[in-house]
């Protein structure tokens, strides 16, 4: 399982590269939101595999006690000024997500972007940006460069794989941090966990 | 479009066959729930095409101001004593839905069943049953009989089609009735309608 | 169940209003596709409740032996010149669906539009248009007019309900017609029906 | 981002703990399937967050040229003797997945299980088992033990997080290995990637 090891090592390095200040801003925003806007909504948005990573995070937000929703599911309420939207796009250029982010701006909700490129259309629109390294399917060259720096060789992680896996683990780190801050035990999460499971 | 006409006629007859008392019980339960349990949840459950009909209904419940959820989506919270589950199954025997309904019983939530067979495993478990005619994929003979009575000839609506289409229109009738009772205008619904659309 | 009856009556009238030539073109295209492009793909696209109606149709296409897919699900392959896309939008202006339809044009796939307005952005782009009456959330005035003609009074079917329910029954009519033409029995459909059910 | 680092380190250790023989069997089965059963289907099954990990894998299988499907989506065909089902469950006891696996046995399709417990109901049923370490929500004690061994301290990854993240990276390793064996370039994957994106 050489590649699995390589990807895991990439995620490990990503953990050291993510800017503490950016992650801190995101956790603070979510902690503050939990304490002061209990009726508020968190809408998670992502396309393709980034969307799946977003769903996994939204599920944990629900377990933590948030009213979380996922763009593209059946049940998506309107979001308003005091709500939060979290958009995930490695390139920061995924058309659907940029369009959705524009609608978030219009609704005056807060926008958190998770992307490899702070200087992308998505990144520039966001209130809070967390830069998660990884290649993206639109940026072959930059990506090649990123890989050189990170010492990972071609072609073992196609398309957005590295970004997606790093983001998944990053967001699970956010969940752990929120558990500590909100004093939630695993048992608390279990209680909110769906009891009618599919 | 002979078949479209036939199916629509079936739905029309179904509208006259559904027991007013059963429909009334369902609307009363939902009206009362809206007025007295604003934080409560409504979980809609169905498999296959019945699940799609359920989703369309859950979407309108959201527009009406309910906290509605759909079994099988990413975001499904635990449901409790004061919550409502609505299970849709033509045969009343769909394994997944019967299992889910048992979990609803255990959670002591209220259970509304929409089925062609009140005397099915699902029907017998429910607090409120609404019988919607239609054939189901498990009951060839009974179905044949139902069709004879309704004057519809083979084989123009395969599998559960008639039940599904009748249920879709029935539930849209429930939505209209709830709009009147809860004094909601179309504009009210539009305001809750997702503003970040996919 | 006065409203259920009204909606069913609307669907019945819709069945008489749909142009036979348009429905014929759609069935012919699908029949020809089945006979001559067995490896080809059919992609069904719709937003919100129209998307759910599309899914119910895609499921039956699968049962009939087509390789059908639904925009927005996990598994959506690229579509090519010989493939078919079916777009459902009452107003013919739903942004997401118009954008998707433009991509269909670029991929040179065939485009079938189901909409209330042949002269909408979606309608004008399509190779085949089927006009299904119904009001839409974007066209209050035209809608009012449509209702006057159809003799249905306010406000019993909010937002796109009438279009969605009429389209659902229309597409089930198409399924029935395809069963006859492709000589498929209900048993044939049952055999392709998922055997590992959720 | 201490926790992100810890989870990544866990995944790294997991990469060294996964039995090469088991991973090899899984890759061989998928390679052989690709070469000799081109029309065959691969059905991926998982509940909750394990289901999301499964979807991400199914998407890549599609990009690699497989006919992959995901249990719970709209489009799920029947599977037969020469098809493959891949079931993901940390505990190997998730009711829905065990039930689905039984149906797979009945359909005589091949069953690959990804679980932390080879000696679980799911593990015992499977033709091929890949043991991926991680704690699961059902096995507090064993989990505690597993963590002690792996040197990871409480409580930083709630419920099935470690299993899910390790499995995600493991499956992306499988994708990389299949790319090499099937001589697929990233460009090949891009070509099958959805061109009508949501």
Automatic annotation (TrEMBL), chains A, B, C, D:
SUPFAM superfamilies: SIS domain. The keyword Isomerase applies. GO terms for molecular function: carbohydrate derivative binding; isomerase activity. Residues 30-184 form the SIS domain. InterPro entries: PHI/rmpB (IPR017552), SIS_dom (IPR001347), SIS_dom_sf (IPR046348). The keyword Isomerase applies. Belongs to the SIS family. PHI subfamily. This is 6-phospho-3-hexuloisomerase.
């Amino acid at each position: 399982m050489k590649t699995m090891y390589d990807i895991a090592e990439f995620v490990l390095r990503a953990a050291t590269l993510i800017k503490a200040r950016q992650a801190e801003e995101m956790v603070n925003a979510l902690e503050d939101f939990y304490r002061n806007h209990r009726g508020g909504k968190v809408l998670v948005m992502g396309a393709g595999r980034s969307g799946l990573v977003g769903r996994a995070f939204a599920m944990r937000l629900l377990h933590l006690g948030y009213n979380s929703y996922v763009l593209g599911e059946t049940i998506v309420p309107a979001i308003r000024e005091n709500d939060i939207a979290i958009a995930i796009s490695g390139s920061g250029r995924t058309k659907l997500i940029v369009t959705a982010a524009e609608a978030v701006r219009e609704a005056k909700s807060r926008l958190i972007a998770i992307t490899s490129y702070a200087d992308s259309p998505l990144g520039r629109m966001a209130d809070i940006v967390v830069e998660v390294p990884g290649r993206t399917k639109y940026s072959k060259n930059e990506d090649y460069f990123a890989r050189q720096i990170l010492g990972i060789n071609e072609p073992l992680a196609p398309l957005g794989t590295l970004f997606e896996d790093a983001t998944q683990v990053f967001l699970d780190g956010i969940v752990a941090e929120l558990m500590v801050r909100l004093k939630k035990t695993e048992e608390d999460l279990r209680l909110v966990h769906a009891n009618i499971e599919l």
